[in-house]
Design a protein that fits this description.
InterPro entries: Amidohydro-rel, Hydantoinase/dihydroPyrase, Metal-dep_hydrolase_composite, Metal_Hydrolase, Metallo-dep_Hydrolases_sf. The chain is of the alpha/beta class. The protein has twelve helices and 17 strands.
């Protein structure tokens, strides 16, 4: 869908890498036509649809570069489809997601990409791009890498954990070598899967079967060891890597050490690792199983890990905050793991609430330009979308979030748009909310509620 009407976003505080200034944004069709400090002449408003942004920050649309929509994880289908997930994303101010198209064992990359397009095309409120997750590395898969690049995919993913997905070190090295010629980037799930498997066996053997067993079986050392291994593989090959969902101080230290050696590594963390600690696994709730809501991998960590990651965010060491949105209902999905925590589907919701969570959490510590980097520009730069995405500039796509920093509201499952029966942030008092959200020039959200439009498109990078 292409928006045809000329629009002017009037009197907003425009957030750019060079500063925040009062001005107007002019939209023509699906592009930003002009960014005007001080505002356009009154004569230019005569034939335009005008939107008042007084008192608001005007951002390029936020980008969530780590989602799992409408995905089979080996245990169950996620609760959110591309339709519901991108609608929820847009309601929170996110105008583009980058989802993990995933090759299963025995599947070609072409088939995986076709399947993800089939799930997403024509259903989305927000835009969508794909990383390609590789689970079956062989000569044919290697030959398909160039085709993926032609299809607009410049980022890939491999796993060090999960038996049905993980590659060994030599295979991971070969993937890095295959994507290096076009400066592709490899996102890696960094947990030592062999250790996790053994620790799960031991924890269960001790009679610990509830959600509290999940963090015990995936300690910080499992993450740090895997991150260290990835850093050396990147150093060996010279290829770019992205550490996804970093959750621990130990893991962060491995990234710091690698950067000092010149390793080309970008770093992602997620709101859950900045806000929630591992005492959540002890929650009982009405049915005695509320701790299952927080079963995700890597698991929630210690307060000391939260403090270290928050400090890294404030110091500019983190390139992007995305969500790893992978939603499962507590009732009918996660509760199938009663009596064996290894059978609880891993993942939690978050795509809708990320901007509000981060801007509230770091209020008084970070400013609008920092949020621009962490929630939009950083993702666009790392994953080959900038300045088409992640920028308020003439010629950029008209993906825009008008953010009202004065709004006050409470996050709850009762008012969310994510298609899941809980939120891990129930009762969180949020400061700020998306007032207007434009996707490709079309108004997709007003005051946190969807307009019903589905202007999202595939973003080839």
């Amino acid at each position: 869908m292409v928006a045809q009407a000329r629009k002017v976003l009037r009197n907003g505080q425009l957030v750019t890498p060079k500063g925040v200034f009062l001005g107007d944004v002019v939209i023509e069709g699906d592009k930003i036509a002009d960014v005007v400090p001080g505002g356009v002449d009154e004569a230019q408003l005569a034939d335009a649809e005008v939107f008042d942004a007084t008192g608001c920050w005007v951002y390029p649309g936020f980008i969530d570069a780590h989602t799992h929509m409408q995905c089979w994880t080996g245990m169950d289908w996620t609760a959110d489809s591309f339709e519901t997930g991108t609608r929820a994303a847009a309601c929170g101010g996110t105008t583009t997601i980058v989802d993990y198209a995933t090759q299963d064992k025995g599947m070609t990359l072409h088939r995986a990409l076709d399947e993800w397009h089939k799930r997403a095309d024509g259903t989305c409120t927000a835009n969508y791009a794909f990383h390609m997750a590789i689970a079956d590395w062989n000569d044919h898969t290697r030959e398909e890498i160039a085709d993926m690049r032609e299809a607009g995919i410049t980022s890939f993913k491999t796993y060090f954990a999960y038996d049905h997905l993980r590659l060994d070190d030599a295979q991971t090295m070969e993937v890095l070598e295959a994507i290096k010629p076009f400066d592709g980037i490899l996102c890696v799930h960094c947990e030592n899967g062999t250790l996790v498997n053994e620790l799960q066996r031991r924890v269960l053997a001790e009679g610990i079967t509830g959600p509290e067993g999940h963090p015990l079986s995936r300690p910080a050392e499992c993450e740090a060891e895997a991150i260290s291994r990835l850093m050396y593989l990147s150093e060996l090959t010279g290829a770019r890597v992205n550490v996804v969902h970093c959750s621990t101080r130990l893991g962060l230290e491995q990234v710091r050490a690698a950067r000092e050696r010149g390793v080309r590594v970008s770093l992602e963390t997620c709101p859950q690792y900045l806000l929630l600690d591992d005492t959540r696994y002890l929650e009982q709730g009405e049915d005695g199983f509320a701790g299952a809501k927080y079963v995700m991998s890597p698991p929630l960590r210690k307060p000391t890990d939260i403090a270290a990651l928050r400090e890294a965010v404030a110091d500019g060491e983190v390139d992007q905050i995305s969500t790893d949105h992978c939603s499962f209902n507590l009732h009918g999905q996660k509760d199938r793991g009663r009596g064996d925590f290894t059978k609880i589907p891993n993942g939690g919701p978050g795509v809708e609430h990320r901007p509000a969570l981060i801007m509230t959490t770091f209020e008084g510590q970070l400013g609008p330009m920092d949020y621009l980097h962490l929630l939009s520009e950083g993702q666009a730069r790392v994953f080959g979308m900038y300045p088409r995405k992640g920028a308020l500039a003439a010629g950029s796509d008209a993906d825009i979030c008008v953010w009202n920093p004065s709004a006050r509201w409470t996050i709850s499952a009762a008012n969310q748009h994510q298609a899941v029966d809980y939120t891990t942030y129930e009762g969180f008092e949020a400061h700020g909310r998306a007032k207007l959200v434009f996707v490709n020039g079309t108004l997709a959200v007003r005051d946190g509620e969807p307009t019903g439009e589905k202007p999202g498109r595939y973003v080839a990078r």
